[in-house]
């Protein structure tokens, strides 16, 4: 039987022996938010030979990933938004839900809403790792930001009304959401842009390094496995480009930066992970690591929609709020459990419906058939040509309520023995009943905000779920039926001080030499805010560790 991982470095399928392979000091797997940072810093701050492998395109091939307004077009481009789906979710009407992620240099950071937040002091305290506390990270954040150069957008009449309403409802207006204190605040978020340019980690870090002779970047490269030799060391990486199988030797380390879904999947294909699961797929167990793929976390959210009495004058969801909605939770004192985002519908409602509607109206077996999915998208696009609908959308806004500190823990498992087999993604939404309680309380708080005088003056006619949904039971039904991902996947290769952790505090994979992980999968507990900033930070810290190790 042809297995996905075999012992040693025996030539396979015509691959050359280790002595004849091309060799690099470092191979970075995944050119996303963290991977671009790691590769660029290793190449520019040392003479090491660096290879970056990315399964998607360069940004220039999808120019919408390079501009601030392009995110809505990227959201409906399957070349850069990798379609993925959960297993059926029992607490969400047994639906299989869309959980796509970014593909291409810059990763999800090249297609997201450009939110850049450090998160909070309490988030890093949750990790219980001395070298990853807020005070230990500030200098790394400052170094990251000197290159990234994030900005805040200018106030508008609408955003000012939203802040005033939030203050009426008990929030404090934040002067800086990156000072580490997110307790009960709402304000203008930092965003990684400059002028009309999106400042993803690809643009800010990797682009300037592309002409360096010690850096090679291979795009459309599908990694198939990390070769673990007989001494338990990551010695080579096998991948394919355009169907051509290739293998490169690794002199120092492999750094996994493929994200909280693909990183554990690729390690399992390489023989690292829960032994029984690997054997079921015919994969030789190189190192039994039962925690890999466990501890999966995400931020589910629901959106409340309102119609104002005049056009919303904001183009981006530029406000971010945090509050403790569930006072009965055992979270740390003064730690927020929910997030609040004001969403101008005119910014991307059309594209959001084009992406999500095929998932909602087509059965799983049909939704990935391009003609059917495109037919649904064309119908949405046609509907939005209506001048009447455009007038409605211009006055429409949402208040998105996000569960920031979920108690539920899911899994990522293998769906088959090949890299082309999609992983089985189970976020286990609301499997801990406290999560549903907290999100319902968050909806109630959001309604207090939209019911405050400042937004009543602007206009706040609730269209969805509608004023009829008042009781706790009805709101629970609303949340179960309408929850969706916020694309904040974390935790599947958790960093811990004990042997229970997949990686140690220096991001080294336990049980395997020459292998580190530097992406959101190492987060033991998901931060309350967006993950792009913390993910880039992990990449920045990984580069520090690698450069220090020589």
Automatic annotation (TrEMBL):
Its EC number is 1.1.99.-. Keywords: FAD, Flavoprotein, Oxidoreductase. Pfam families: GMC_oxred_C, GMC_oxred_N. PROSITE patterns: GMC_OXRED_2 (PS00624). Gene3D superfamilies: 3.30.410.40, FAD/NAD(P)-binding domain. Residues 259-273 form the Glucose-methanol-choline oxidoreductase N-terminal domain. FAD binds at residues 112-115, 223. Its cofactor is FAD. GO terms for molecular function: flavin adenine dinucleotide binding; oxidoreductase activity, acting on CH-OH group of donors. It comes from the Bacteria. Belongs to the GMC oxidoreductase family. This is Alcohol dehydrogenase. The lineage of its organism: Bacteria, Pseudomonadati, Myxococcota, Polyangia, Nannocystales. The gene is alkJ.
